[in-house]
Amino acid sequence: MTETDELLDAESYLESLRDGRSVYIDGEKVKDVTEHPAFRNSARSVARLYDALHDPALRDVLTFVDDQGIRTHRFFAPSRTAGELLAARDAIAAWSRLTYGFMGRTPDYKAAFMASLSSHPELYDPYAENARAWYRRYASLGLFLNHVLVNPPVDRSRPVHEVGDVYVHVVRDNDRGIVVSGAKMLATGSALTHATFVAQNSAVSLEAGKAEDFALAFIAPMDTPGCTLLSRTSYEARATSPYDHPLSSRFDENDAVLVFEDALIPWENVLIYRDVDKANAFFPRSGFVNRSHLQAGTRFAVKLDLMAGLLARASRANGTDGFRGVQAAVGEVITLRNTAWALTTVMAMDPVKGPGDTVLPNIEHAGALRMFTSQAWDRIHELFESNLGGAPLVVPSSSADLRNPDLRPLIDKFYRGSDSSAEQRIKLFKLVWDAIGTEFGGRHELYERVYSGNADQVRIDALNAARRGGLADELDAFAGECLADYDLNGWSRGPWIA
Prior knowledge:
The chain is an alpha+beta fold.
């Protein structure tokens, strides 16, 4: 089979975003997201990932040739063995290190779903050929897709089909495709993507006979007429310099609400249409949850690599690295980091059977990782705040203070670190603060807490997975075994019977 290699590079990726998409921020439509101060550096951070695909030092780590002869990112294609799944995990990690774990919805994230379009296209009958075609296009170019699954927080006490003025639904269809209207959230990083995948999330259960107009799954290119993105505040635009905002100035994945207003979705982009059963079954049957949390957990593990190094460095700068309690805190961050890496490893090396001859990350381990990551970042915050105290606040207002010749002698004397110059100490704590204390840092605290869904849903999904896979019955039977050992009259079996 002849190998094809059409993967985008940085230049072609950036050029592909200049398509007239409708992105709004601060009351104005963005003319070019690759040059706008709210998106420019983040776009270049993503572009760096695309150039890495062609870097001889990373090419074999990041890419391989799939069973269709397409050279693509290792996680963009289905995995056939545990070894392939672990190699895909390592490819995710290699990309994530280029953003220090602070960009979560990079192009490999949606690969968690898109690979299933190759391994299980029949799930989308009668649109199976659409699935196959989208996989070939997606994998060959390395396209960047976002997704919107969550309905806006409007009238959530009512069933989906009663909120047609807000939630995405089909208005009509014709020989060209389906026409949809409504809003979805939270389109993280969407301004920098090629298309958005639209479906319902696992917290929604559509009612047959009532919710057919909402039972949809489709892919919409970002330049689709009638598709509008309403962005939140840009932390990148507010960053004053790399020295002062080293993370938010380049890794701000702007979140947005995506609105469709009589938008035409061509038939070739439709995957599920007015099929309640398939729309409800998307999450458990697509393999998306299994795979998405391998990507998410790996990215989180890389993020904890950075945080462990930062806490150790900050403690040395404060001269507290010899204190027993501080050493315990650094050790705890390392154990949290080790746990994240261990969970991603076992997800890959203890896989479950997927469609055809493919394997998927183990859903039970994925459930454990979902709950762990939602709790671990809060603990990281607590450890940094408890052990560094006010040190991240003991920095000048901006890098301009260090360039002021009248202030510099005072800064050099009173801001120096125990093991470093004032300039280096301030640089370190500006990075710490951007990670945990700025508005960007606050967004990441919320992001990690709700990334996997609301807290109850994370646990309910784990329960439902256990029921579907038979684990719940096994656990119930094991408890029954213990209960069967004795009764009101004493031991009923085993070596305890006198």
